[in-house]
Amino acid sequence: MARKRGGFAKTAPKTLERRIIENAKRIREDLSVILPTAMDERSKRIMEKIENKLIRVWKCRDDLKVLEKLSMKRGLEGALAGTLTLAITEKAPYLAHLKVGERTIPFAVRGKSDRDKLASLQHFDDPIVRLLAFRDIAFKKKLSFYSWEDNFICCSSRNPVPEDFVEFLSRLLGLRRKGKILECDHLKREYLWIRVKDLEIRRCRSCLPDENTLLNISKYFIDPSLDKHVDIGIESKLLDYGVSLRYREDYLKGTIDDWRFFEENLRMWRNELRGRKEKLIYLDGEIISAQDLLEKLGVDDIEKKALEILLSKVDEPIFVDKPDLNSLLRIYWKEYGLDVLEGLSGKRELAKRIYERNGEPLRQIRDLEASIIRMETLSRYPVPKLKSSTARFVDKMFREYLIGGKERLLSTLSKPPQEVKSRSIAYAFLLALGKGEERKWQYRKEEIELGEFLVRYVKDLLESKPEDYPSKLKELLAVAGIDEDVT
Ligand SMILES: [Zn+2]
């Protein structure tokens, strides 16, 4: 078994052998099956000459001896002669292999012609492989070849991309066609574009494949001046800020895919604009004003105020991938969260109590809002001058409740007071909040009994309106046996 460039010749499975021989027979019957249709005068003239040379070989199609001699020639004629011998011998027990992109193409080595031309002719029914036979002609004669499905055409390389080929690419890529533009259905301000001559392919960020589209489509054509005819770029408002496009060469070489080309550029641009402290808001491919951002986020009053405070603090570009307030706040919460809470409440201490560096920003804003509302409520209740320590204890517990609700009062009551009457009232508070059973063990029997009697007065007190508060307090104290003049 002879060792060949790029692999060993292997024993051919019967189906492969049969297919290659069938193809050789079809060429023997009709030479035109391997020939592209020339689309313009220049390519017609060139192809006619090539065809004439091939016809001279093809005319010897029944003479094995002559074909074998002709197959010693290099180039397309030699490959045709070699392939035609297969139609006579009807045998190809050993096949060599040619790597075409990701695929491995089996073919029979006959004569001395180029391997890619032999493989190409033996697979003339494969739109990608059949192009290989015409590669050097394309470069030498400046012709473009397009090959897809049952179509195989050529034209001068200066010609625009053929309409039918654009139609095919539209189907291949699943993109809508608008003249010579192929695009996805979601195009807005920002998109990736790939140009091949007068053809432009556009995709939005979310439609970018993790494949190199140019590499994928260039399997279906040969353009001898491809490097001059192709380009890739990104349409983006960020380019107005003087950032530059990178990774173009890597993309054109095929080493990075569409998605990475886009994301890497965007990442570089962000870093560059951050470094320059450029003030801008980027949302989903658009540069928008602070006002637009507020509208797009659909925020309520306090959220709006929080965002305004944040925007006044941040002195770098803001990049938002999706219009969601919490994710935006989260980016800057460590740095500016406390300032936002302080700005909202006007109270540094309150802000400090609520602020959590790693917590959810929106929840903290909601907590702050609730505290502000409670403090406003608190300020509406009169502050009586009280003599007895029990009275002052009750008043303090009531205010804890107004500021921090049930949770805060329960936490304050976790340690029972010292003084006897206060202890009974403390237990009554626990009962009113539904935590009596749980904390019963902290109290003595007589404290519990008095507490159970006082609970209804405590409930009244907790529900009292500002104007009723002094009288409800007085009533509770009186029942507990304390005569206090609440004014
Ligand atoms: Zn899209």
What this model shows, in words?
There is one protein chain. The chain is α+β, with helices and mostly antiparallel strands. The chain folds into 4 domains: 3-148, no CATH class; 163-256, no CATH class; 281-378, no CATH class; 382-479, no CATH class. 52% of the residues lie in helices and 14% in strands. The protein has helices spanning 14-29, 41-58, 64-70, 75-89, 115-122, 135-141, 163-173, 213-217, 226-229, 248-253, 258-275, 290-297, 301-313, 325-345, 348-354, 361-380, 389-412, 420-432, 436-439, 445-462, 469-479; strands at residues 3-4, 7-8, 10-11, 37-38, 94-100, 103-107, 143-148, 151-156, 176-178, 181-183, 191-196, 199-203, 221-222, 230-235, 281-283, 286-288, 318-320. The strands form 5 sheets. It has a 5-stranded mixed β-sheet with strand order 9-10-12-11-14. Strands 4-8-7-13 form a 4-stranded mixed β-sheet. A hairpin with a 2-residue loop joins strand 11 (191-196) and strand 12 (199-203). Helix 17 (389-412) packs across helix 18. The chain is elongated. Mean pLDDT is 92; it is low at 1-7.
Across the major sheet, the strand order is 9-10-12-11-14
Helicity level, as a percent range?
Answer: 40-55%
How confident is the prediction overall: mean pLDDT?
A: 92
Largest sheet: 5 strands, mixed
Q: Nearest-angstrom radius of gyration? A: 42 Å
User: Helical element count?
Assistant: 21
Shape: elongated
Q: In terms of structural class, how would the helical and strand content be classed? A: alpha+beta
Number of domains: 4
Question: End-to-end distance, in Å?
Answer: 114 Å
Question: How many E-type strands?
Answer: 17
Strand residue content: 5-15%
Which residue ranges are poorly predicted, with pLDDT under 50 across at least 5 consecutive positions?
Answer: 1-7
Which ligands does the model contain, each kind named once?
A: zinc ion
